[in-house]
Structures are given as C-alpha cells and as structure tokens.
Prior knowledge:
The chain has 161 residues and is of the alpha+beta class. The chain folds into 2 domains: 2-78, Alpha-Beta Plaits (2-Layer Sandwich), CATH 3.30.70; 82-154, 2-Layer Sandwich (Alpha-Beta Plaits), CATH 3.30.70. It has 4 helices and 9 strands, in the order βαββαββαββαββ. The chain has helices at residues 15-25, 54-66, 98-107, 128-142; strands at 2-10, 30-37, 43-51, 70-75, 81-92, 111-115, 119-126, 143-148, 152-155. A hairpin with a 5-residue loop joins β2 and β3 (43-51). The longest helix is centred in the last third of the chain and has 15 residues, at 128-142.
Amino acid sequence: MKHTISVLLQNKPGVLSRVTGLFSGRGFNIKSLCVAETLDKGISCLTVVSHGDETIVEQITKQLHKLIDVIKVTDISEHEFVEREMILIRMKAESHTRAEVLRVIDIFRGKVVDVSAKSYAVEITGSASKITAAIDILRPIGIKEIIRTGTIAMARATKTK
C-alpha cells in the first residue's frame, strides 16, 4: 500500500540523513522525498512517499518519533489529503510540432517557462497520474529532458457545518 508520511523536523545538518536512514535500515524503499523550510526557518517539512505494509509504516513512525530533531510525524494517507508534483520538461519544438506541444501543454494546464529556437521548457503541476499522463502524450512528440519533483502533500481541512 502507498503511504505518504509528513515529518516536521528541525532544520539542522544531518537530520535528513538520520530520517532516511530509518527507512533504508528497515528495507523500506522511498519512492519520493521532498523537503523544504516551513514558515519557521528553523523547521522543515519532509514528505516521504513509499509502498509497504501497515506494520512497517507503524514501526518507522514510532522510530521517527524517537529522533530528537523530529517534531511531528503524520501518515497523511490515513486521512483525506491533497498532493501535488511538478515536472519540468524540455521538448523538441520544431516548426511542425510547436503548435501541437502548446495544445497539449494547455490541456494539462501547464505553461511554457523557457523558449529557444529548437525547444520549449514547460512546467506542469498536478497529481502523479496527471504528470504521468502528460509524459505519455508528450513522449512521441519528442521529450529531450525531464526533471520531476517529489510529492508534496497536505491533509485536507476538516469541514465544519
């Protein structure tokens, strides 16, 4: 089962290494990892996506809580949540394919972020399935390079009546 785990931690050298060491030490593969500062520059939010059974995730969550620099651990896959990824794709943009590339990018609500005589760099943001669908459609046109972020996720706000 896919798990998305959010970890708030102190923004200090070596903390990320200790956290990821827990995963590798238990043979738990990390599919995606994204970390950045929060509003408080001394605290970072780490989002980890992996596949594994409930027992392993529970064990890792308990071990993460024991690390001194970890503030909070949440398996957000247990709740409703919003997740996004971003991809930058450098596309061949020859005279006969330029219009087609722009149409596909528009369909996926992407945008061109860099233009040269023979290529476009485009940005697309969305769910992992949306990103994968865009890649599948753009591949036959001529992808030169792909850079993909990891997943970022946030639990949905509780709805009050």
